[in-house]
Amino acid sequence: MLNNHQVSQIQQASVTERLRWMELILQSLKAEMTPKLTVKPFSPKRFTVRTFSLGQEVTVERDPLYLERGL
């Protein structure tokens, strides 16, 4: 907080000097407000593969599928 002596000094200062103080205060506020970027190390998520059976072998004819799509 500012005491009365500091307030009177600010009031008696020139406009240029007061603007300089305001810029200094603004810069300090910007420095405090910038988010601190924390980089988390990448850790791949583990998963398990479950096997399953369709009961019989499935064969897919790809040529007719591609012809239907126009590829």
Q: What would you call the structural class?
A: mainly alpha
| Number of helices in the DSSP assignment | 3
Query: What order do the SSEs take from the amino end to the carboxyl end, as H and E?
Result: HHH
Strand content: under 5%
Percent of residues in helical segments? 40-55%
What is the radius of gyration computed over CA atoms, rounded to a whole number of angstroms? 35 Å
Q: What is the average per-residue confidence, as pLDDT, rounded to a whole number? A: 85
Q: Sheet bearing the most strands, described? A: none
Number of E-type strands: 0
Question: Distance between the terminal alpha carbons, to the nearest Å?
Answer: 75 Å
In the predicted model, the low-confidence regions spanning at least 5 consecutive residues are none
**General shape:** rod-shaped
Brief overview, please?
The protein is mostly helical and 71 residues long.
Overview of the molecule:
By secondary structure, the protein is mainly α. The protein is 51% helix and 0% strand. The chain contains 3 helices and no strands. The chain has helices at 4-12, 15-33, 62-69. The longest helix is centred in the middle third of the chain and has 19 residues, at 15-33. The protein is rod-shaped and about 90 Å long.
